[in-house]
Amino acid sequence: MDEKQLTGDQLLSLFEALANPHRLRIIGILNVERKYVSQLAREMNMSRPLIHMHLNRLEQAGLVKSNLEISSDGKAMNYFELVSFQFDVTATVIEERLQSLSNKKKKRTED
Questions:
Q1: φ, ψ (nearest 5 deg) of residue 105
Q2: DSSP string, 27-81
Q3: Domain HTH arsR-type, which positions (predicted)?
Q4: Which of 9, 32, 51, 108 is deepest in the core (most CB within 10 A)?
């Protein structure tokens, strides 16, 4: 992912996704190795629905991706891994994205 390819709305979504300590912890964990949802829930001492909510937000921002796999005993396991990213966010980058930033307010459901 490259900040030069992001629209203003996508840049805002990225900032919103990163503006949460639980999601930052998830990124730190996934930077070491991919995990399935139950592993993350245990490691972070959170419910699976709450982990899913955070993972969905990170996935919408393009920071993680998921892969559904079937284990040897037939269980469906949804693995998440970090998408490689590096951002150089400057005032100029933000200024350039202003043209593509919508003024629609989103209904906030979490954070």
A1: -85, 135
A2: HHHHHH--EEHHHHHHHHT--HHHHHHHHHHHHHTTSEEEEEEE-TTS-EEEEEE
A3: 3-97
A4: 51
Asked whether residue 108 is assigned to any structural domain, the reply reads no
Task: Please tell me the predicted confidence (pLDDT) of residue 71.
Answer: 84
Task: Pull the structure tokens for residue 77.
Answer: 């396991």
Whether the Cβ atoms of residue 39 and residue 17 lie closer than 8 Å to each other:
no
Q: How confident is the model at residue 17, as a pLDDT?
A: 94
List the beta bridge partners of residue 76.
70
In a domain, 101, yes or no: no
pTM score, whole prediction: 0.81
Tokens of 5: 């390819």
Asked if residue 90 is part of any domain, the answer here is yes
Residues β-bridged to residue 69: 77
Q: Is 14 among the domain residues?
A: yes
